[in-house]
Amino acid sequence: MIQIRTRPLAQIAIINTAGFAVFTISIDDHLMVVLGVDAIPITPSPPLKAIRINTGQRYRVAVCRDPNVTSTDVAAPAWIRASMQQSAFPAPSPQPSVLGVLQYGRLTAKPRELPTTDPDTYPLAAVSGWR
Hints:
The protein has one domain (2-120): Cupredoxins -  blue copper proteins (Immunoglobulin-like, Sandwich), CATH 2.60.40. It is mainly β. Strand 4 (30-37) and strand 5 form a beta hairpin. The protein has no helices and 9 strands.
């Protein structure tokens, strides 16, 4: 679970601790702007719906709600999705994707509520604009 305060923009660090796999990361109804890679500041990327992160890489990203998504609750929780690249392995992984929760507001040990979207209806392969 990632906890951020309710504000238009928040920064988070994404680290791929895998020994071999590349992951694609997205947050439902949010955009990410890459601000740094491996602790090196870069020219900020355009807003992205998803990013690919190689083994051992560390990304610093700014996260904001996607202005093209209409929502009545701007502080609603959202699924964080991490999908492992399957083509690098001889056999498919039994669990190629994992979920987390982006929660707004005060810190709690467990999510106050889960996102209302179905975790299986937003496949990363369908996300346009990812790199």
